[in-house]
Model the fold of this input.
Amino acid sequence: MNKPLRHVWLVVGVLFVLLFTSTTYFQVIAQSRLNANGQNLRTTYNEYGRHRGPIVVDGEAIANSTASGDTYGYLRGYDPGAMYAPVTGYYSVVYGFSGIERSLNDTLSGEADALFYHRISDILSGKQGRGATVELTLDAKAQEAAWDALDGRRGSVVALDPETGAVLAMVSAPSYDPNQLASHDTAAVQEAWSQLNDDPDRPMTNRAIGGDLYPPGSAFKLVVASAALESGDYTADSVIPGPGTYTLPNSSSVMNNFSAGRTDPCGPDDESTLAEALRQSCNTSFAQLGVAVGEDQLATTAEEFGFGQRLEIPLSVTPSSIGTDLDDAQLATTSIGQYEDRVTPLQMAMVAGTFANDGVIMEPQLVQAVRTSDLSTVAELSPKELGQPLSASNASQMRQMMVGVVEDGTGTAAAIDGVEVGGKTGTAEWGEDRAAHSWYVGYGQVDDQKIAVAVVVEEGGYGSRTAAPIARDVMEALINP
Amino acid sequence: MATIVSYTARPRRLTQALLLAFAVVIGVGAYALVGLGRFDEVPADLMQVGVGSAVLAAALQVVVMWRTPYADPVILPLVVLLNLLGIAMIKSVHAANEIYGLRTSASADRQMLWGIVGVVLCLVVLVLLRDHRRLRRYTWISAVVGGVLLLLPLVPVIGDSRNGSRIWINIAGNSFQPAELAKIAFAIFFAGYLVSRRDTLALAGPKVLGIHLPRWSDFGPILVAWGFAMAVLVFETDLGTSLMFFGLFVAMLYVATDRLSWLVIGAVMFLPPAVFAATQMSHVRTRLTCWLDPLSSDNYSSCEQINQGLFGLANGGITGAGLGEGRPDVVPHAESDFIFTSFAEELGMVGAFALLLLYLLLVQRAIRAAVGISDGFGTLLAGGLGFTLALQVFVVVGGVTRVIPLTGLTLPFLAAGGSSLVCNWIIVGILVRLSDAARRPAARQVEGLDAPAAPRPAPEVVS
Done:
């Protein structure tokens, strides 16, 4: 009976070959298709069941995962929640994730290519894989100062280290509690979600880098002044016209020199130096300066400052813009930060930082370091130059003019004893019968420390009264820790 | 026998001892890893499990040395390893259910208890069954017992229907799958019956399409077996069980007669019932749909189980999620019917292959014993038991990996379930006994003879 037994063995062999084949098919060949299947809960569970790395500011975890003992394995928690929410984003089992949670998901979950060897060693040592820690560049004191100073008003604050591009503060208010969205109670999450989305104040928008952007108002005059200096035809002491009113070219519209209908000229004989025009924030001076410098020069300088660039810091930054194909009348209003000018507070902080960094603009970055769970460093912040919009000497002239603004102009509320503070306020009009947005853009410098800061308070009225003090609070928090 | 197979008569008991130790270390190690994976700590009962496994393995070793000194040294280590791995995986699924709380599943403790019962029964078989040929006396008793067991789930009060199949009995809260025990009875019956009737059954009848059909008058037995398979299919609505019994019969018939025609006839006879089941039974129809196209949105919810199993396979990939680190808890019955996908998820394709190879090796040892045994009854019994094992693995693993439609069988030694585990341990006892008979030096050999074992006389000559 050996021959039939051999045949039986052959049949068994064939049956097992089928099993080997089918197993290989589903585990290797069809693997990615099955993993990508929308019905595959395991993909979700794997995503949420990982021990995700924390997000750290100044050594304290502001986002952390703890074992939850339910079907997802881990619960993401945020402390303090709202203050950092625009940066950290949320991590929701219902609505996915946003902010750093999204941009650096691979790193936090441990799936990033850079963590490959770490992952292998985890597999070999049988440890459960843990995501990497993301350390942010944010300064807890500055962040808190900015958050407290805004005090719930709609607006945003950004502070940068102009020499490295490190983002020291990024606040957007009103904010939300990401713990509400990270909860595993699906019904509660859905309710919180719809409430947040229905809120007319749009608490889930990071106003520092996105949303609808803001008209910069007079703060934009810094860009116009830079363009003028860079054109080579002007210095800080150049005398430029600054009448009480200015009829826009080819138009019947009349621009007043100051807001609230004030029509006093910028100086005797309807003219003043560039520095003086900036100090007083004369509209007619800068409108005419912009027209004289021309759209090309203005657009070039603005582009060099980062306008129109899509940055990943690693959060995606909405590009700021000054509009295109402007006629002279439009160019005139553009030059005082109105018309189609739309900027992010981050962009304005970058502009201010450029002056403090001798004309060199650094790429803003939010991540100080990425470390694995055993504390070996995977990546560290390396400063990157974005370009040089203006020469060191022009940057120095800009600084002098801005110091003039703070010492004896519209920005006095930003002054700090013993610190070189330069800046520019803005009062951006944006809608009929609505209060103007309040701006302050500037830098502070003492010893080797430099800070660039941009503040916007929606419908905050005069920049000099509302935004400038907030900037001072933030700079003080950074300078006197 | 066309060729004479001769083994040098070496007991190889030391080999078995080492392999058993290896199996216990691997199995208990897997158990520890599951605890580490799920709770980041070694299971509290690791010591008990380790010592218990070692004691049982030692008992097996001692009894084998005492009763079946020439037994195949690989069979028991393979089974011990499979049993321990099964316990580890049941623990993993149970722990996952505890942690994530989607559903509940049987605990590993229960399986350990049944494992102990199984080992004890295996030892009893080894001690009491001095010669496998004694089983031949019970040929017809086995037939009756097997028939009764198989039809037991149809008895109104104790019969129990699950997932559309009526293959369970329930007595005082304890459920039992009698088909597992019937498998043993039928294997004994088929072997005993066929060995005495093989010459007649092998006689050639009319020739159709180049195949010698058996004589019409010899169709009786296969019709009876077919009838039983039909009864199981129609009344217990389980394609898997009926396929297994019919397959067992046909395979043994083929081995006994060496007539290919029986295989063809068997395959042809099983077609109508399979078609009948596929068209007339709603749960078989569902399973057929889920076999062909489980992932489409129309079928997704009705094929939830198989889909989750497939996702588990994909989640495992080549190297697996790691013991205690997969999510088998999202698969319904991940500790029993779908334990293969649980393994494939946590140990990956590498681990799944290893498991299949363990089974293949076990089947190979059974068939090798069948080849070595000098009496036809033993050959048929060993071959039959080996083939059912293979068929069962194929039906289960093929079912979850979409080679064939899903049926209600369980994976021997791995799946949670007392009846299956205990019955398979009894089968192992019989197999060890058979392998001892296969490898034992020829009887009445002069002791102290230095010359290599003389070739045994070929006892069976196939015409």
Remarks:
- The beta strands of chain B are 159-162, 165-171, 174-176, 204-208, 211-214.
- DSSP finds 14 helices and five strands in chain B.
- The radius of gyration of chain B is 23 Å.
